[in-house]
Give the backbone structure.
Amino acid sequence: MREVDVFIASLPRHLHIVETCKSLLATERVLSITITCNNYSDAEWQEVQQRLLVINTVHQVPIFLHRGDNAKKSNEKLKHINKGSGKYILIFDDDLTCSPDYLTYLIAGCEKYNAAVGLHGVVLAPLPIGSYYRDRQVFRGLGEVICNYRVDIVSDCGHLFKREWHQDLGEWYDRCNDVSMDDIFVNHFHRQKGIKRVCLQHDTHFLKHKVQEADETYVFDEYKFNDKIQTDYINKNFN
């Protein structure tokens, strides 16, 4: 059954978003995909439209593309999150591909634990912490996790939850700053509603990461030694 609306913020990344969407469509659970395409050149904008049309000829799932300027960096994933009608929302990364059973597995976990779920999670050290990127335990989505764990933060590299849990989705983007910390914001919004967060047990077959090119940088690289804003937000809102 198609019941998942997917939201992605994409940088050109050699148009890996096409492979990302191809893998999501193959799950047969996707109702729509909404992509904010940040800093795409005119040529890249035309090419991504054409290539997505080709891969979607069989599934014919609505794919909504929005051109963006990356004003709020990774928080751009949340810009259109109030759109759609699926039972579930998935926030996903444009540098990943997933296995055909990925969404079925997440949905089962969401229903079993009545929780927001993913394969990559963070447990914070006792507050106040000194650094978000140092004072934590990480369960990695690309590795193996041997148990199901209650976590403080489910990463937005693959974060599934029920639409009905939040009636204020249209306000989320405006509540975000211009620092890449969308997963911190979303988990705070869950926390405000008393929604559990669970990192699901998994092996390594569910998610694959693209090869990092020499001209590409990632959120961790940008903030690992400069995370005061994230740390202060957590100390204020996760206590």
Remarks:
- Residues 109 and 117 are 7 Å apart (CA to CA).
- The chain has seven helices and 13 strands.
- The longest helix spans residues 42-55.
- The longest strand covers residues 30-38.
